[in-house]
Amino acid sequence: MKAIISSTFDDKYLFFIPICVWAWNKLDVDVICFLPYSDYMGSEAKNQVPAQLIRDTIQKNNLRCELHYFNAPENKKATYSQCSRLYAACLDLSEDEYLISSDVDMCLFKLPISDIIWDKFQILGSDLVPKGQYPVCYCGATVKLWRDTFNLNGKTYQQCLDNLLAGDNCEDYRANRWSVDQEQLYLNVSKTDRFELPRSNGQNQFATKRYDRDDAYLLERLSPDTIDIHMTRPGYEENNFDVIMQVLKYHYPNDDLQWMVDYCEQYKKLL
Question: Residue 192 has what DSSP assignment?
């Protein structure tokens, strides 16, 4: 199994990469992460410093994560990043590898999809988004199913992103195209044989077995049955980081998490 995440070089998201990867690795899942190529290699040299810190942190802590880069216009980088997760099967992967899409600010304690159905897409939290959408976090299927369903055979992920987004223009692009990844996921997967897994608690926007960052009583609800935490943002701010660390120490009491503290301090110096 491989988890698919993505980010821009917005500190609110970029900061979480090593923590997110560590959590997936704890579940014996490798990670593929997509990032904007132009931000790392291009004129925005300021982004090379946090990018280097993240790569160094991944390497120093033996985290299993492949970084892949895409090109995108400045006003579309967030949308390209979100949609890149739909096209991870374009990479050189075995057809029977299982891919599960996720968010960079989600930290896992249990596999969100543990009973894999190899011949169907599985969508956890299908009832958490508006009609006509599927949540990218979490959707799982084999590489073969991803390729066949999204017509990816013989294509690169950059080609797929450009075909979807390059000719699409509107005012305030990020706001008006914020859900295009979830819409594309539904458009393609809803035509296939799939298995939808509801997750709503039936009362509000919170998902069952999740610590939600908008829950003011999050630390009063610590439970070993919880699947994930939607991490408080920005994660490097003192109060938010303290919440994240308390949750991690609850679920992993025997792990030495000092490296996260050191990483956070280093990251804050770059802001």
Answer: S
Chain centroid, CA 51 distance in Å: 17
For residues 17 and 7, the answer to whether their CB atoms sit within 8 Å is: yes
Asked if residue 88 is part of any domain, the answer here is yes
Q: Is residue 64 part of a domain?
A: yes
pLDDT computed for residue 75 by the predictor: 87
What pTM does this model have? 0.94
Do residues 136 and 82 touch, judged by C-beta distance below 8 A? yes
Q: What is the pLDDT of residue 174?
A: 64
Write out the two tokens for 226. 């919880």
pLDDT, tens digit, for every residue of 11-35?
999 999 999 999 999 999 999 999 9
At 49, is the pLDDT very low, low, confident or very high (cuts 50, 70, 90)?
confident
Interior angle at CA 241, CA 209 and CA 216, nearest 5: 50
Residue 107's beta-bridge partner residues? 229
Residue 123 lies in a domain: yes
Of 155, 123, 154, which is closest to residue 139 (Cα–Cα)? 123
> What is the residue range of 186's domain?
2-201
Please, which pLDDT band fits residue 42 given cuts at 50, 70 and 90?
very low
80 lies in a domain?
yes
β-pairing verdict for 228-230 and 106-108:
antiparallel
Asked whether the beta carbons of 139 and 95 are under 8 A apart, the reply is no
Specify the number of domains making up the chain. Answer: 1
Please check the confidence at residue 132 and state whether its pLDDT lies above 90: yes
Distance CA 218, CA 214 (A): 8
- 8-38 residues labelled b (16+ CB within 10 A) or e (exposed): bbebebbbbbbbbbbbbbeeebebbbbbbeb
CATH number of the domain encompassing residue 12? 3.90.550
Around 149, how many Cα atoms within 13 Å sit in the side-chain half-sphere?
A: 25
